[in-house]
Amino acid sequence: MAYSGVQDCIDRRGEESLRPLADDPHAGTPAWDELEAALEDASDEIDAYVGARHELPLDPVPRVLQRLCVEIGIYRRADSADRGTEEMRRRYEDGIRLLKDIQSGRASLGPSDPDPPARSDMPAVSIEAEPRSMTREDLGRIL
What secondary structure does DSSP assign to 41-110, as a single string? Predict the structure, then answer.
């Protein structure tokens, strides 16, 4: 099952901007089968990254993955239909970078993350010192 559906894409981008991605963009009513298939593929691509760190399937689906599914799915469909834009490619690449960060633990899935990244990149700080050899009182007597 896809992390997002066609309606999510329409809600984010608007139907008119997505109409060229319909099966037959010249038909009176758009057929969204190809976009739906691209969203399934996008979900599989997301799982390939997220599954390396988290147990799948994720329930509930984090909002960040729903958004990434929309961006990746739109890009995949547009690319296969030769209707891709530079903006679509940039959004896709940004999404893949975020997925790589989630996979490595540099980013989380948000508040609903079932396994938030450990802060292992922050070393523990320990300070050891000898006892003071001079106090304020000692300094006051000298001056």
Answer: HHHHHHHHHHTTTS-SS-SSPPHHHHHHHHHHHHHHHHHHTT---HHHHHHHHHHHHHHHHHHHTSS---
Structure tokens given for 133: 């050899």
Is residue 115 scored above 60 in pLDDT? yes
pLDDT digits (tens, 9 = 90+) for 77-94: 999 888 889 999 999 999
Domain with 33, as residue range(s), is 6-142
Residue 1 in domain: no
Give how far the C-alpha of residue 28 lies from the chain's centroid of Cα atoms, to the nearest Å: 35
Backbone dihedral angles phi then psi of residue 135, each to the nearest 5 degrees: -110, 180
Task: Please answer whether residues 36 and 7 qualify as being in contact, where contact means their C-beta atoms are separated by less than 8 angstroms.
Answer: no
pLDDT above 70 as % of the chain: 90
Total count of domains within the chain: 1
